[in-house]
From TrEMBL:
The keyword Phosphoprotein does not apply. SMART domains: AAA. Residues 2-233 form the ABC transporter domain. It comes from the Bacteria. Keywords: ATP-binding, Nucleotide-binding, Transport. One of its GO terms (molecular function) is ATP binding. The keyword Nucleus does not apply. PROSITE patterns: ABC_TRANSPORTER_2. It comes from Virgibacillus tibetensis. This is ABC transporter ATP-binding protein.
Amino acid sequence: MIEINNVSKNFPGNNKAIDALNLTIPDGKIVGFLGPNGAGKSTTIKMMTGILPLDGGSIVLNGFDIEKNPLKAKKIFGYVPDQPDMFLRLKGIEYLNFIADIFDVSKEVRQERIEILTKQFDIYNALEDYIQTYSHGMRQKVIVTGVLIHDPDIWILDEPLTGLDPKSAYMLKEMMREHANKGNTVFFSSHGLEVVEQLCDEVAIINKGKLLFYGTLQEMREYYHSDKSLEQVFLELTNDE
């Protein structure tokens, strides 16, 4: 479970990047996090993962406060950032072993997971190459593989499907569904409204740092007395703002 309690964030020259945000993401759900560019999605995710400090409120992941118990909180989630350009001077296999070392994954378990995941993502034969030689999509795949090596309870994904080929995108969506079906939490931001509509159990819509809606698509249609698509409702909500 992810509990975001009255969270705020200010940046210089910006009144409030995040304004008193309250959001509770239950176990066993895939939740899509939507908003226009600059709405506060990545800022929220970076606070959830401990990259940015909170200016107010609290974020609790499966009972662990991200600021009061950062090490314990970070053990239980996997994070895919919106830009996969990290550790470019490492080889793919060096990066994956580095991540496995951080999370104390045994050699036997890591070898099995690395082989299975990288073959599924079709990057197994590139593991001895440096990440800086990878395409954007390959970098995304190796980052996602690193996230999955320690099998975290909570997945926090910022635009995870960007740059993936159709086969790999389908595979990741299937993994997300399977993970949630096991009683775990998947929270991801996306600009692909059709994907969110197809995949997510619930959606959270944010704009200008404020939560506009959280619930199922059916609840959204009932609340706004509309049978329109998610795309149409989303555009109406955010344009009104």
